From TrEMBL:
UniProt cross-references to CDD domains, sorted A to Z: ASKHA_NBD_PPX_GppA (cd24006)
Transmembrane feature ranges: none
Protein name: Phosphatase
GO MF terms, alphabetically ordered: pyrophosphatase activity
Cross-referenced InterPro entries: ATPase_NBD (IPR043129), GppA/Ppx_hydrolase (IPR050273), Ppx_GppA_N (IPR003695)
Top-level taxon of the source organism: Bacteria
Matches recorded under Gene3D superfamilies: 3.30.420.40, Exopolyphosphatase. Domain 2
Amino acid sequence: MKLAAVDIGSNAIRLQITNVTFYEGKTNFKKLEYLRFPLRLGHDVFLNRKISDRNRRKFTKLMKAFKILIDLYEVDDYMVCATSAMRESENGKEIVEEIKQDIGLKIQIIDGNREADLINMALWSYIDQKSYLHIDVGGGSTELNIYVHKKKVASKSFKIGSVRVLDDLDSPKVWKSMYKFIETHIDDKMKITCIGTGGNINKIFELTKPGKKRYLEIDKIREIQTYLESFTYDERVNKLNLNQDRADVIVPASKIYLGVMTAAKSQRMIVPDVGLKDGVMNLLFERNKKGPVS
């Protein structure tokens, strides 16, 4: 069984194609293809409320390329999810309908709660009876989910993201609202461990050269933030070998993670290296494990 997940984010767009096999009572997942294309739709939308003609043309070409790969791999089922930038764009629904009619690719524009639910599907193996705060920082939004005894007790999406912060489009009112949410649902008696998802925290984690461990202490994240701030954008690209669309947003993203961790009085973050595409893949598997959807 072959499955494909597409994540249309505010800073980049990702495609993953996975082959699922069943052998001797075990389910095996093999990644066949992974592509990340740096198309920053969020810059258009958060500044001008719509996707520009130039990026609309690039987006259409990219969706054609993804559809060709999905067809070439003879995928049994797929799901394409668009998040913050597309759902806030005045011409987002029009573009989605155009892609459906011209290319035959169905795109779902999902809200923040649905986005968080899908990501959470990929997190269950990291959540036990303790208290956790899941922080997912994207280009346009940050999703917070609080778990106690393996039960989600609170969840909310905030219009704070790495691209918004980079472009100085984050509202102090929204930051205050996010901190108020944390204060309301996390008391001083709760010992909170954070779980961080998103491309920027994965890169921060990688820069720490952590070995086999899958967590970071808050002081280490602060250390990496200071280290990154000591370089110019060009130096991050050429000396640290960061992608161009990562080199400018990684510091704003680190400020969001640290802000949330500090507000929650959390000292440690688990970094499982999963995201929306992984949650989508889990959903596709669940609905196809008894046979591909016709």
